[in-house]
Amino acid sequence: MSLRPNHSGTRNPLQPIFLALLLGVLSSCASTPPPSTYGPMDVMQKMIVHHGVIVALREVTLQNPTTGTGQVLGGSLGGIAGSETGGGRGQLVGGVLGAGIGQALGEKAERALARQAGLEITWREDGSDQEYVLVQAKDPEHPLAVGDRIRVVESASSIRAFKED
């Protein structure tokens, strides 16, 4: 399919659809849910509850896994856009260069979208001098601070901290 201008001088109407598809797929990259969201592995499972106090907090960056979709879509769109340049062999060279550049940009965009703000929470369990650390997604709706009393919920697949009411 060519996205070059047709005989009337207008672009193929599918080009915006390709761009929207790229943005949609990249924006749906996996992210770690906030602590108040439970996944299927946590539902109907026995969990242990600990109580304690936050003794230190550090903001961290969570890097969620990427799928490679950014590379594929970026390379495809870059190849299509690059092949629009010149004529004959110029189109071939433009397509190859466009695909390479698009792939690199698509990977970078997907990686950036897969980053998320997180917290490294150091807490001391009630009745103990032992300190523990857990890392979870930062939840702007339920901020935590040093000195807060927390309830830590631990399951076989996760651990999360909540400010006690």
Notes on the structure:
With 165 residues, this protein is α+β, with helices and mostly antiparallel strands. The protein is built from three helices and five strands, in the order H-E-H-H-E-E-E-E. It starts with 14 loop residues before the first helix and ends with a strand.
Average pLDDT score:
76
Question: How many angstroms separate the termini?
Answer: 60 Å
- What is the β-strand count? 5
- What sort of overall outline do the alpha carbons produce when their principal axes are compared? elongated
Derived structural class:
alpha+beta
Number of helices: 3
Give me the strand/helix succession. HEHHEEEE
Question: What topology emerges from the helices and strands here?
Answer:
Layout lengths: L14 H13 L20 E16 L5 H14 L6 H25 L1 E11 L5 E7 L11 E6 L4 E5 L2
Antiparallel strand pairs: 1-2, 1-4, 2-3, 4-5
Helix pairs in contact: 1-2, 2-3
Structure at a glance:
The protein is built from three helices and five strands. The protein has 165 residues and is α+β, with helices and mostly antiparallel strands.
State the main characteristics.
about 160 residues; alpha+beta; about 30% helix; elongated
